[in-house]
């Protein structure tokens, strides 16, 4: 394998590792922009993964599997939204509980699908563009979910900055009492944001089971939901930064594969720790500049809204 082949192989691997992180981080960013802290991303991802895989194996339809994955994540998001927005439960505790619930539910549903493989989501072929050496294979030979993640990053950035609905969402996240006082439906806005975040997490999980490793393995998200949460803080709640941060962390994730491939005498367990170790280091570095972090974070993040207030 020459240098060009190694470059293309590494780039393709980084894209597949980054795409589920991009979906989950972008969805969580919208949720947090509305003022809700959702720590249940991991649970939503793994439920989306198992439901998408089960649908794909049962129906042999990749399109239907992707849709079901998104709807499954949104369903868990809806449960989270009902608990924290209607019943006013603690957001941190509820998110953690839903992560545990999602892991258990996915293990139950996926028990009968262990050892079964899925044909996967086919890559797209764009005439002429896909035939360009190196660039064509990397940029124009991906599956539809990769392009969906790129479109989501662009669309969310445009939505938050250029639309009235995005302005309302940000207003709710910054000061829910003021937004309520001028007539904006705080609970509805936040509930829709949570549903969207759940659907995006479900898509991230669906990508894992349909494309990244087209088979079902219990707990296959392996902490990616927590990395997505860290990415939102790392990106200072900006969609573009979150998207490119996902590719940075995706690159760190696949380093272990290439290091082992070239025969470096580094314990595989240490390399497997690398993405999570980097996540902790990034959060520690960011927390040192707490003033800037407070300026970037939505002011009402994690605060309970009382409609009577």
Order of helices and strands: HHHHHHHHHHHHH
Strand content: under 5%
Count of all domains = 1
Uncertain parts: none
User: What composes the largest sheet?
Assistant: none
Decide which structural class fits the backbone: mainly alpha
Tally of extended strands? 0
Q: Give the helix level as a range of percent.
A: over 70%
Which value, in Å, is the CA radius of gyration?
Answer: 20 Å
Give a structural overview.
- By secondary structure, this protein is mainly α.
- It has a single domain (3-296), classed as Orthogonal Bundle (ABC transporter involved in vitamin B12 uptake, BtuC).
- Helix content is 73%, strand content 0%.
- Helix 6 packs across helix 7 (164-174).
- The longest helix is centred in the N-terminal third of the chain and has 31 residues, at 3-33.
- The chain is globular, with a radius of gyration of 20 Å.
- The chain starts with a helix and ends in a 13-residue tail after the last helix.
